Amino acid sequence: LFEWLHRSDFANQSARNLPILEQWHKEEPENLRVWYYLGNQYYANGEKDKAARWWTKFYIDNRGTHVDRHQSMVWGANAWRELGNVKEAIRANMAAITEFPEIADSYLGMCENMLLLKQWKKAVVWGEAVLRHDPPEMVSFVNPLDYTWRVWRDLAVAYAGVEEYEKGVEACKLALNTRPNDEDVSSNLQVLEEKLATQKVVGGLVGF
Predict the structure, then answer these.
(1) Would the pLDDT of 139 be above 90?
(2) Which of 24, 66, 27, 28 is nearest to 41 (CA)?
(3) Which has fewest Cβ within 10 Å: 5, 33, 86, 151?
(4) By three-state DSSP, how is residue 103 classified?
(5) DSSP 104
(6) Maximum Cα–Cα distance for the chain, whole Å?
């Protein structure tokens, strides 16, 4: 469900910054901002396990700002999910929903958690909840694709899981409105259209 593209300039910057941050942490082990920065830098360096642990350490400490704690919850959940640790991803997403129920991000995260667990009905519920909530304020890091392409891509898979193929087709088309060259979504659309056609034929025969 996720792909992190490592640009060489990010990697080079991380190589410079990590030793500085690690030394800073040795000198000020209780400095909350250092924990947060370490999470960011480890993730940029592709060390997702370390990033997830620092973000988790940061968000469970109530001293951080609301914006930073929310981002740590969301980013931590993403990292845990990429590592295949759905339990910790759920923990982080639910922490965000408990403290920031108005923000859409972790409803999307919970949808993806349920997809990984193949709990299709729950994935539909969480995915549709994204559409009823707001993106975070622009002061946070916001990827506009999360609320256009990503949510519809995820919902298409969830709808397929519960055999609501018509909704799945529509979700694919909405995702492709934003990323028309997405090969995976295009492939899913083709499969769902075939399943929808078969479903209508079978339904017609049953009705007959």
Answers:
(1) no
(2) 24
(3) 5
(4) strand
(5) S
(6) 78
Tokens found for residue 192: 């769902």
| CB 36, CB 60: distance < 8 Å | no
Best CA proximity match to 172, nearest among 63, 26, 160, 138:
160
Nearest to 108 by CA among 172, 166, 158: 158
CA distances 127 to 33, 55, 78, 115, Å, are 32, 24, 16, 10
Work out the pLDDT band at 110, boundaries 50, 70, 90: very high
What is the DSSP secondary structure assignment for residue 133, as one 8-state letter?
A: S
Asked if 171 and 156 touch (Cβ cutoff 8 Å), the reply is yes
Task: Read off the DSSP letter of residue 7.
Answer: -
Note the pLDDT of residue 115: 98
Average pLDDT over residues 133-161: 86
State both tokens at 199: 């479903």
